[in-house]
Prior knowledge:
This protein is an alpha+beta fold. It has twelve helices and 14 strands. The protein has helices spanning 20-33, 41-48, 57-66, 71-76, 79-90, 125-135, 223-247, 254-262, 269-279, 287-298, 303-313, 323-335; strands at residues 6-9, 12-15, 34-40, 53-55, 96-103, 110-117, 142-148, 153-166, 169-179, 187-195, 198-200, 214-215, 251-253, 284-286.
Amino acid sequence: MVDASHTTTGNKMTRNIYDPNELLKRIYDDHNKNYDLYLNNEEVYTALNSDNFEFVESAMQQLLNRIRVPKQFFDRCESELQDHILTDFLKNKSSEFLVRFTGTDDLSTHQARAILSNKYGVIDHISVFPNVLDALVNESFNITNVLESHQILFVQIDFPECSLVHEGDKYTAGLAVTNSETGHSAVWIEPVVRSNNMIFANRSRLPAEGVNCRLIHKGSFNTEQLRSMIQQCKDIAQVGVVQLLEAKNDMITTDHAMQYVSRLDGFSKKLADTVKAEWEQRQQISRLEVTRKILELAQELPVFQRLLVTQQASRVTNLFKDYQSKLNSIVNSNGQ
């Protein structure tokens, strides 16, 4: 698979196709820079005050969550009060943490990327993504999107033979694989549909359909379960293509659409106001257009927040709802 040309915008990189071997090499190289230490309270306090260690923002958030101090409050405090808060917790209580570090290339500074419970079950990217690619060895697929931050790695995979073009828009069935090495997400293997470089997902709907897309970070990694999930995703995503086409003609009132937009977690009031201004002269709007507008505006959000909004955006289309009956209908109509 040939790596396509790419462009970089802000903190994200967009390509047409990613080389799987390049992705695996990057995961392997990053893995070799990472290490874990089990530290008690006193040792964490020492690391916080050392010039050789840097705690990324999300790791500090995890520590402050443990001591039940809002980060916004902590950031406003003078340095003396910050030290008092941390000293009170870390030097006067007895606990042990799993602290996940990344060493820089010259090993002069080490980033603490996560502060987790010492009972946290580690499932690293190097345990997930090679198994995903092995399970796809007999499939025709493309890796079409990779999003990465300290919190998460998201990889989107398309099945090019499961696509169609309708009124100039291309819809492609696929799956998304998500994992966090820093306690922000379980392993998710879920069906998605890609159209015009937008990702349509709705993992919250799938448990009601009897579909498990989640592997929690506890115990050993279940490779066989992962393989089964991947096979199921392909069928469900193809149903999703049909459902999005139906949502294109399913109209709702603009008031209903705005109520939905205003309740999105992670979608700022500024973005919601942008949508309201654009739709204020309209009486109705299609469910698909509502989702497209949310996904379009979410592109300017940080990776972790963008993926949070992406998961909510397609709910208004009823994506994957009653997928099994829809799949049976498609199979039966093709067999006639």
